[in-house]
Design a protein that fits this description.
By secondary structure, the chain is α+β, with helices and mostly antiparallel strands. It has helices at residues 3-23, 43-49, 53-56, 70-83, 128-172, 182-208, 223-233, 235-241, 260-276, 347-357, and strands spanning 28-33, 38-41, 87-95, 101-113, 116-126, 219-222, 244-250, 255-258, 283-292, 306-313, 361-366, 372-379. The chain has a 5-stranded antiparallel β-sheet, with helices on both faces. The chain has a 5-stranded mixed β-sheet with strand order 7-9-10-12-11. Helix 5 (128-172) packs antiparallel against helix 6 (182-208) and helix 7 crosses helix 9.
Length: 384
């Protein structure tokens, strides 16, 4: 074999070796000329972008970045070619063919030749997972802080509320205060105080049980009074706003087993949410029915179990389609910061915790005639 042929084989082997290293690099790499045109990419780039090499080569490198990062990329490219020194940038957004948006750290390395820098190497390191983990850590720290706040809040406010509750009980028992409407006013105040104390305990449950579930106290009770009490609680507010609240329970004598106090909180939260978004003269309808398991969403109860189906419907603006999957997540809030009706993202999350602790399911939808529909289904024998 001649020396020339041998040298050619060695060059070919060397090129194959470096091509293998190029294609098996951990990061996406792109070779870009001084006109910003992509001249070559490695296999990792094809994998990350979801695009073939042939579709990428020959296009402008700036177009692989999201719109708002393109100006920053152009500036970095200009600096590299002018200074012939490496430049870096973090948090560059790169869309993929699948619709995902990757967070990349970018390094732009000049490729030196005898006639100067006529190309650069772009190295993109995918930081999406790292950023996601950082966000999870921030969220965990936030939840830990809220847990501490909840403990302090409960400690500071529970005793005064207990004192108010006891005073109301003593006043309500006095003979001269037994007439109407004063007796009813005392009863309403006692119910509201009990609810406030329950909310404080629930806050501690949510933040101090490591989100693993709420401790439940089961009993058997009639269903209609549970929802009627919620309707009575908001009677004055509904009348003041001209909103009619309809309660339909079929059959009337439904009984179930579960944590009555917690389920009452669910009913109160759902009704309060419907009232917030109801227009003046609107109607909120609460429908409570006993159904067989076969008619309900899969996975609720055991085969043949009776199911309690509850629907709370309003005639408000409805729920944006993009918000439906996240509505029951902790701290979820609609993006409209000018809407004073938007809460802190705890009420509906609490509803989901309670319903799931009863082996049920809760979901949201929009009515075809307008307005929102929040539904829950759970076994009538929902022993937590």
């Amino acid at each position: 074999m001649s020396e020339q042929v041998k040298a050619g084989h060695e060059i070919a082997a060397s090129e194959e070796y470096y091509r293998t290293l190029w294609n098996h690099a951990v990061d996406a790499k792109l070779l870009v000329d001084d006109q910003g045109v992509i001249r070559d990419v490695n296999s990792r780039t094809e994998l990350k972008l979801g695009r073939r090499r042939l579709d990428v080569v020959g296009t402008q490198a700036v177009h692989i970045f999201w719109d708002h990062d393109r100006a920053r990329f152009r500036k970095l490219m200009t600096q590299v070619f002018a200074s012939e020194k490496e430049r870096s940038a973090s948090g560059m957004q790169v869309p993929t063919m699948s619709g995902a948006l990757l967070t990349m750290d970018l390094d732009i390395v000049p490729v030196e030749r005898s006639d100067g820098v006529t190309a650069v190497l772009l190295q993109l390191s995918d930081m999406t997972e790292k950023r996601h983990l950082e966000q999870q850590l921030i969220r965990s720290e936030r939840l830990a802080s809220l847990s501490q706040f909840a403990s302090m809040f409960a400690h500071d406010i529970r005793n005064p509320l207990a004192g108010i509750k006891k005073t109301l009980e003593l006043l309500g028992a006095r003979p001269e205060l037994q007439g109407q409407p004063i007796a009813q006013w005392f009863s309403d105040l006692q119910l509201t105080t009990d609810l406030l104390l329950g909310m404080i305990n629930d806050m501690l449950d949510v933040y101090q049980e490591s989100y693993s579930g709420l401790p439940m106290v089961a009993s058997t009770f009639p269903v209609r009074p549970l929802f009627q009490e919620a309707v009575d609680l908001f009677k004055s507010e509904a009348e003041a706003r001209g909103v009619m609240v309809r309660l339909e329970v079929l059959p009337q004598e439904i009984t179930m087993t579960g944590d009555r106090r917690r389920l009452q909180r669910v009913g109160i939260n759902l009704l309060h949410n419907a009232l917030k978004y109801s227009p003046p003269k609107g109607v909120v309808t609460i429908t409570v029915k006993a159904e067989r398991e076969g008619a309900m969403p899969a996975g609720i109860g055991r085969c043949g179990d009776a199911i309690l189906l509850v629907r709370v419907e309003d005639e408000g603006p409805g729920i944006h389609a993009a918000d439906l999957p996240s509505l029951f997540e902790m701290f979820f809030r609609k993006k409209d910061g000018h809407d004073l009706r938007i809460g802190r993202g705890l009420g509906l999350h609490f509803c989901r915790l309670v319903v799931e602790a009863h082996h049920g399911r809760i979901w949201a939808a929009n009515r075809s005639s307008g307005g929102a529909q929040l539904s829950m289904a759970l076994p009538l024998n929902a022993t937590p």
